[in-house]
Write a structure and sequence with these properties.
17 helices; disordered C terminus; mainly alpha; DNA polymerase, domain 1; three-stranded antiparallel sheet
Length: 401
């Protein structure tokens, strides 16, 4: 308390200390004002307003002193809120039973490795959109990664609103994006026929069957390693894709990446050749079609395949591209051969064909001079003029006026 009993006194040449009682605790806060007579009087008035608010039961410590450690103490001790780290840790546990293993692992990495280290010491109500925006602006990742991070934050805050821990979700209808230069080409780098041949020549027989199968079906790596012999319908000539297996799922099959990923893929001749060649290796050994040659067991994730893939491409003298490019190779072969984009989309598990047209447009054959003749031959026969040449000339002249 100050000597004159006002509860206000100079603290330094540039600050004034204010003292008051709140919830039985003596509180001292410094206000950054030069201790002139006018400023001391002004702070005395501020203190009087605080005392009145305390008496009325309307005083909120964090509203008057948001940067004070005591503000956090009074909020948490009264049960009004919790720290971002505490909430996100508890929220993450609640998501584990309802998420796929791969999705949960993605959430966990964002929360534990990024969000908590940056914002964990904030109280939940202190977290602001501008804080997130400034943080994301300093990141060196692309917009897709930024969107994934914000998606996790948005979901966590939405649940906090549902639990009445927050009044609003500041990430609703907001997604920060960095302005980027338009790439001349998409990240599509398919393997040529010659490269495919070189790769297959450097594989063991079982591994060659798997890679050939990947080139001619366009399946994702996670889908390929989850395939069983029971998924192959040799009578109808189709492969049923129903499951996926990721590194995060730890050997447990999950549903496919998207609902449209549940699909049937037509068995083309090279695909059938790969399956027939694989029969002696795994058909009588159990469910999985393709196995890790090193362990004799089903692959447990894409990292194992990537390690083998690196060695194979190096031995074949082929420039490295990640295994997912086998999927792009399939799509580019199909569209360059003139297969319908809608059919290709269904084979690959896309919801519609617009993505195929957008991504693989450069491989689509240009229209030739015979374009339109098929429709003309089917639908154009039997059509006759319903008006005389004279009338046609009159109509055309009128239209040209």
């Amino acid at each position: 308390m100050s000597r004159n009993g006002s509860g206000v006194k100079p603290a330094s040449k540039s600050s004034i200390q204010i003292t008051f009682q709140y919830q039985g605790i003596r509180c001292r806060e410094n206000i950054q004002l030069k201790p002139t007579p006018a400023n001391l009087k002004r702070v005395e008035q501020q203190r009087a307003a605080i005392i009145h608010a305390i008496d009325q039961g309307t005083f909120e410590y964090h509203n008057h002193f948001p940067d004070s450690p005591r503000a956090k103490f009074f909020l948490t001790s009264s049960g009004q809120t919790e720290y971002v780290e505490e909430y996100l840790t508890r929220w993450l546990k609640s998501q584990k039973p309802i998420l796929k293993a791969s999705s949960y692992e993605g959430y966990r990495k964002v929360v534990d490795n990024l969000v908590i280290p940056k914002f964990g010491n904030l109280l939940l109500p202190q977290w602001r959109r501008k804080d997130v925006k400034e943080w994301l602006e300093g990141m060196g990742c692309g917009n897709k990664r930024l969107a994934n991070i914000q998606s996790v934050i948005r979901k966590a805050l939405s649940d906090a609103v549902d639990d009445e821990l927050l009044d609003i979700n500041f990430m609703t209808d907001y997604c920060y994006q960095r302005k980027v230069q338009v790439k001349e080409e998409e990240d599509i780098d398919p393997f040529t026929i010659e490269e495919q041949q070189s790769i297959l020549a450097k594989c063991s027989k079982s591994m060659a069957n798997q890679i050939k199968f990947a080139f001619w079906t366009g399946v994702r790596t996670s889908e390929l390693i989850a395939l069983n012999w029971g998924d192959i319908d040799f009578v109808r000539g189709y492969i049923r894709v129903r499951r996926a297996m990721t590194q995060a799922s730890k050997g447990q099959a999950e549903s496919t990446k998207t609902a449209s990923g549940l699909r049937e893929i037509k068995i083309l001749k090279p695909t059938l050749e790969a399956l027939q060649a694989q029969r002696p290796h795994t058909f009588l050994k159990g469910d999985p079609i393709f196995i890790n040659p090193g362990t004799g067991q089903r692959w447990t994730g894409d990292q194992q395949i990537r390690d083998a893939w690196i060695r194979i491409l190096k031995a074949a003298g082929v420039r490295y591209r990640w295994p997912y490019q086998t999927r792009h190779t399939y799509a580019s072969m199909m569209v360059s051969a003139g297969e319908h984009p809608m059919w290709v989309a269904k084979q690959m598990g896309h919801r519609d064909w617009t993505m195929i047209a957008k991504i693989y447009a450069k491989w689509m054959p240009d229209a030739d001079e015979n374009a339109g003749h098929k429709a003309e031959a089917i639908f154009g026969t039997g059509l006759t003029n319903t008006h005389s040449p004279g009338k046609c000339q009159g109509i055309c002249k009128s239209a040209n006026k």
